[in-house]
Write a structure and sequence with these properties.
By secondary structure, the chain is an alpha+beta fold. It folds into two domains: about 1-70, no CATH class; about 70-133, no CATH class. About 25% of the residues lie in helices and about 30% in strands. It is built from two helices and six strands. It has helices at about 80-95, 100-120; strands at about 5-15, 20-25, 35-40, 45-50, 55-60, 65. The chain has a six-stranded antiparallel β-sheet with strand order 1-2-3-4-5-6, with no helix packed on it. A hairpin with a 6-residue loop joins strand 2 and strand 3. The longest helix is centred in the last third of the chain and has 20 residues, at about 100-120. It is globular and about 45 Å long. The protein starts with 6 loop residues before the first strand and ends in a 13-residue tail after the last helix.
Length: about 130
Amino acid sequence: MYRHDSNVAALIEFDGGLRVNYQGTWQSNWAAPGFEWRSDCAEGIITQREEFGDLSYARRDDGQLTRVALPPHERWISETRALFAAFVAHILDGAELQCSGRDHLMSLAMLQACIKSSASGSGVLIADVMPRG
């Protein structure tokens, strides 16, 4: 299904010193594809085993995962409804967007930095992949 690698592992250091060991899998070379997002942090882990649910965390010394209660979700509808409501509030009232296009561009820049880092074998700053000007 995927032309290139469908799994990712990245060591990410954020401003302020937060370090995350990020691993993501999109396995689709089998009739039952798998899904798991896991972030290893200094004090524990966060994991999500379903695309729209099954969110859990564990602190370093916990014996098992703690599930995070999530609100009811209708696939593809709930997030669209929330994004549209936020956009309308932004247009009508000037409310700040939590998920802006600018924020998404930073996410894409982080992905580009990961790709460059994988190719070069060394760390890459997000600022180094952002357009100048």
